[in-house]
Every structure is written in C-alpha cells, then in structure tokens.
Amino acid sequence: MGYENYHPIHWGGTNINFISGSPAAYYEPNRKMEIQITTCNVADSLGNLLFYSNGAWIANRDNKLMVNGDTLNPSSYTRSRYTDGFRLIGSQIAIKCPGSDSLYYLIPQTVDDGQIVFADKCYYSIIDMSQDSGRGAVMDKNHVMFHDTLNAQMSVCKHANGRDWWVIIPQWNHPAYYV
C-alpha cells in the first residue's frame, strides 16, 4: 500500500501478506516509490513479489527501478509528477502473457494534463521477468492501444478458455466500452 509524505525522505510503505491464509501487515522501510492512488503489483504463484508500479515507473522485487522501467506513460503529467505516480483509480493492470512463463503486459492509462477528469490514452508495455537475473526488464514500452476519453476504471478477467484475458475499459460519459 502506498503513502504520501510530502517530505524529501522516503518513508517506505505497508505490505500485506496473505500466504498464511490470514492477512499479515508489515512496514516496508526500503520502498522508494511513492504510491498516490494508481498502483499495480504482481507476485508469483508462491506469493513472492515480482514487480509493482505507480503508473509512472516500475520497481522490481528489490524495490529498485526495473531495467528500462522509467518514463512510462509519456505525457506532461507524467513528466511533472514522475516520483509521485498517477492519481487515477483503477487505471493500471498487469496480466501474464498467455503461453509464457516470463512475459507480462502492463496496461496503464494516462492523462496529458493536471485536470485528471478522465484518462485520454491507454498504453501497453511488455515486461520479461527472465531478464536481469529474475528481477525483470521492460523490453518494449509505451505503445498506444487507443486514444479516447476513457473512464479510469479498467477491469480484467480471465477468458473461459483459461488462457486468454478480457480487458474492459469504459468510455468516459458514454455507455460504450473497449474490450
């Protein structure tokens, strides 16, 4: 979980571990990433952290910048709020690439101004967790999936075939969805 401290010293954050079957919260003093509202994290099948993001950059399991994990979602907003991350609820998801043991898609939305009324672009980047001794690297990033006025509340669910994913993004102020 994130924090906001408005202080030059990073104060860490809170982690919650569900592996034992009961939630166990603990303080993580080594986290350098500020997480405002936008967050996404991925763990392996054993519950070990692989990576997490605040919409502006990606940290690896060691709480350090993932190789090529900076400058996500290029926009004037990202450049001005790089360390803080995004303030869009439900605007970022990560899914494992079907048929791969190491590739993940990171799908974030972005804004190009400080208004944050709606998202205006949806990107995707590809992360390969087999790189950098298992700490991962962003291999391909910032591809625009589409550009429109978007509601920043994406959803994802596994397809009935057990392999593929459905990503659903509502359009802002219209009864329409991107799927």
**Spatial gap, N to C terminus:** 28 Å
Query: Which stretches are low in confidence, meaning pLDDT under 50 for 5 or more residues running?
Result: none
Discrete helix count = 1
Structural class: mainly beta
Q: How do the helices and strands follow one another from N- to C-terminus?
A: EEEEEHEEEEEEE
Quick check: average pLDDT? 80
Query: What is the helix content?
Result: under 10%
Give the beta-strand count.
Answer: 12
Q: Largest sheet, if any? A: 4 strands, antiparallel
Shape: globular
Proportion in β-strands:
35-45%
Strand order of the largest sheet: 6-7-8-9
Radius of gyration of CA atoms, rounded to a whole number: 16 Å
Q: How many domain modules?
A: 1
Please summarize what this structure is.
The chain is an all-beta fold and 179 residues long.
What is this structure's SSE topology?
Elements: E1 13-17, E2 24-28, E3 40-43, E4 49-53, E5 58-60, H1 76-80, E6 92-96, E7 103-110, E8 119-128, E9 137-150, E10 155-158, E11 165-170, E12 177-178
Descriptive notes:
Helices cover 3% and strands 40% of the residues. With 179 residues, the chain is mostly beta strands. It has one domain (13-178). Strand 4 (49-53) and strand 5 (58-60) form a beta hairpin. The longest helix has 5 residues, at 76-80. The radius of gyration is 16 Å and the shape is globular.
